[in-house]
Amino acid sequence: RVQVAESGGGLVRAGNSLTLTCTIDRSFAEYAVGWFRQIPGKEREAVSCFNWSYATTYYAEFVKGRFTISIDSARNTAHLQMNDLKPDDTAMYYCAAVGYGYYKDYGCSEGAFRAVGYWGQGTQVTVTS
Asked: Which of 29, 68, 114, 125 has its CA 20 to 30 A from that of 93?
């Protein structure tokens, strides 16, 4: 089993920034990593994914230009830099890892990660207006 843990959530005012950190106990050479979020009352959705082997990055439309995913392979950590946060970004944010074979076939799909991925417990982000 792959261990995944997130940190860095918190309470911020709109327009401010937060950086979330995800640590996995495996190499990014073997696993793609993704950030997902769940807004109360809504389905969990993909935010951003990174695939080290293919050097591909995915961003959901609603975060393009505001969020940036990055990897520190030496520390097996992934960061999600979130700038210009909006109240609509308020959600539980989850990090997940999935083997490259699945990522190659299904991409940054919440369904695929949910089915075969490894998930952290989540970190709450609350943005006030």
From this structure: 29
- For residue 98, list its beta bridge partners: 32
Work out the number of other CB atoms within 10 angstroms of the CB of residue 122.
Answer: 17
pLDDT in tens, 50-93: 998 878 899 999 999 999 999 998 899 999 999 999 999 999 99
Rounded to whole angstroms, the Cα distance separating 51 from 29 reads 9
3-state secondary structure of 29: coil
Q: How far apart are CA 118 and CA 2, in angstroms?
A: 6
Stretch (H or E) spanning 57: strand 56-59
Return d(Cα 120, Cα 69) in angstroms, integer.
17
Helix (H) or strand (E) holding 11: strand 10-13
